[in-house]
Structures are given as C-alpha cells and as structure tokens.
Automatic annotation (TrEMBL):
Keywords: Flavoprotein, Oxidoreductase. It comes from Lampropedia hyalina DSM 16112. Residues 31-124 form the Acyl-CoA dehydrogenase/oxidase N-terminal domain. Belongs to the HpaH/HsaA monooxygenase family. Residues 242-382 form the Acyl-CoA dehydrogenase C-terminal domain. This is Acyl-CoA dehydrogenase.
Amino acid sequence: MTASLPSSWGQGPSDRYETLVAPLRRVFHRIRERAVQRELEHELLFSEVQALRDAGLTRWRLPPELGGQGATLPELFAALIELGEADPNVVNALRSHLGFVEEVIDSVDSPWRTHWLQRLAAGDFSGSGFSETGEHVLGTLGTRLTPDVQAGQWRLNGAKFYTTGSLYADWINLTAQAPDGRIVGVLVPTKSEGVEILDDWDGFGQQLSASGTARFENVLIDDALIKPSAERFRYSSGFFQLVHVATLAGIARAAASEVAPLVAARTRIYGGRTQVRRFSEDPQILQVVGRVHSLAYVAGAAAVQAARALQRAADARGSGDEQARDEAYALSDIEVSQTVTVVTDLALEATTRLFDALGASAAKRGYGLDRHWRNARTLSSHNPRVYHDRQVGNWHVNGTPPPAKVGIGTAPVGDGQAASASEASGPSKAAAVVAA
C-alpha cells in the first residue's frame, strides 16, 4: 500500500472543516500512536483527555467569543469519527461533557446559562452520573438530596454507575431525587469531600472510558449547583446515541486502516490455495480489505448525515413555529435511530472480517486487533438496537413519535407497559404533520 494515498473517506461536512480540524488531527495522531499499549497496560486517559481540552475540542461548539469554534453538529460528529478511529475510549469519555455543552447552549437565557458558558469557556470538563444499578422503579432514584438546615444547603448521598468520563472530570453531571420526589439535576465537583470515583468498570470493551462507580457520602451541595430543570435538551436522545454511532464508525475506520498495511507487509502465502506470489496480490484477500473499507465508509457517511438532522433540531429552538420545532425534534430522533442498527452491523462486520484477510498471527495480543470488536460490541450493547428498529417502524407505519423520555429500571407495580407507555400514547403534532 502506498503511504501517501489520499483519504478515501470523502470530503468533510463543510468547506471549512479541513482547516477547523487540522489542529485536532495532530492530537488524534498522538492518541492513536499508543492506543494498543494503553489497552494492553490499562493506562487511563488522563493525558489524552487533557490534550484534547488544551486543543479546544471540549469547547468546539461554543462561539468564538467564548473560546470555541462555533462548530456545527455535522462538523463535531465528523471530528468524533476521526477521534474514534484513533481511540474510541476517548470519545466515550468525552460523551457526557459534549452533551452538557449542548444542554447549556440550548438552554434559555438565564444567570445559570451565563455562569456555565463562562465555566465551559474556561475549560471546565464534566462527566456522567445519570445511571444507577439495582431494582429502582422507573422514575425513582437511589441517589438522594436532603436539606442540611444548619448549613443552609443540601446533602447528597448515593451511588452511580456508568459514570463515563467522571474520573477525568472537574464535575459530575448527575440526577438525584429531592425530598418531594422530584428528580433534579445536580453538578457535583469531583474534588468535593465525600465524592469517591472508582475505576471498576470490568467490561471487555471500553476499558479506559472510566465508566465505573461514583459514590457520594454527605456531599455538601449549594443551591447554585442544582439545575433550574432536570429536563435535557429536546434532541438529547438522538445526540447521545449519535456519539456512539460516530464512535462505531471510527472503530470501523480503524479496522480498515490497520488491516491494509498488515496485508501489504505480509510475505507468506498459502501454498496450494492461491496462485499468486505475493499475499498482497491475492484477489480474495484484496476483496476482504475492500469490504472492510466499504463498511467503514458507509458507517461514517450515515453518522454525518444523521448529524445534519440534529443540527436542524438545534436550529429549530429559535423558531417561533412550535409545530416545526416538534417535527424537527422527532425527525432527528428517527434519523439517528435509522443509523443505529445499520452502523452497528457495519462496525461489527468490519471488526470481524478484518481477520479473514490475515493469518492466525493476527490474533496476537500485541497487534491489539481484538480491541476493535470488543469496543464495538460493548458500545452496541449500551442502548438495545432492536428498540430503535421498532421505533422507526412505528413512526413510518403508525405515525407514532419517538418517546419524549427513556430510562431504565423496574416497572411500577401493576404497570407492565411502563417502558412503552409514551409510545402507545399516540402521535404528537410533529408525527401528525409528517403522517399527513
């Protein structure tokens, strides 16, 4: 393979993209250089995350006057695909923070918004604290806020799991249950007394994303750290899911870009099974390499296309047309869901097929080729893809919109349909418009 071949992944999502992403690519390159070694040695991502903070990726969506680039969502997701090719653990570690940036940008003008825009502009970084293990009923949480009358503040107690990125963060963006039963959003400084963040995620993939446990014991919480609303931005479901999709596309690219030079460098052939003198000339092997590259190409194209739908949803907030806003939000969810199963299949096929182009030596741990499948399979298990297919079908057949809220937990007593109640409630205004 010629090292100087131009990229075949296609043009970026905008005319300015190449200029915008150039400084980040230097960081991506350094991250990729040690990706296998980090996996083998379980070397956490503190320096990699800090390098991306220093390079400005964590502020990319902020306007230039706040130190950002004013990047569009297609530009952001195109960059995340490239970062996913370098190391998908890093993208997952950034996922919650990027969502919080989007939440602040999308929120109404308020002192809270101004405060957090300033903190984000200063480089503050947040991790995730929304998930809990155990048998909690849907709509309830084990993590609780209670008043501390003497201090005139609140105390936070509980535990979270899948706290992706929090080990690298300044803040944990989490939800807790207030004394009146309401679910509230809270931003907790990771260095606060009573906060303990563990690197205890033991999954076979995404091992460096710091997705383990966070414990909170009598953590003092000021009123200012409680969000005005626990509601996420309207296109948040599609946004967070598309980060995974973009990461999967990046994994597929990594599989493609690693298999080609390995085939080119291989000198041994399978005698009696091929008529070629060089392994790199075997048409069956070349077919496998071509297939892996094609799978990665389509995965990336699908992710960027869905990001355009998210951008339309983000732009709709300023519209005075409520019906148009609802339609944009619903369609962004549908377009992202349409990518989920397909891109999952593409990534899993790419990360499996690459081994068909190589010999048994490709299974050696030093190559780290197994990490591609492990990471892809782990990401694919976060949000069951079967529900995305059903959601898309329900939209197109019945005009039923995506659920406004999703969650995980046990069903309330006597409510076996709790998980699908929002889908059974009938079309929204947006669905009615499109179905008509």
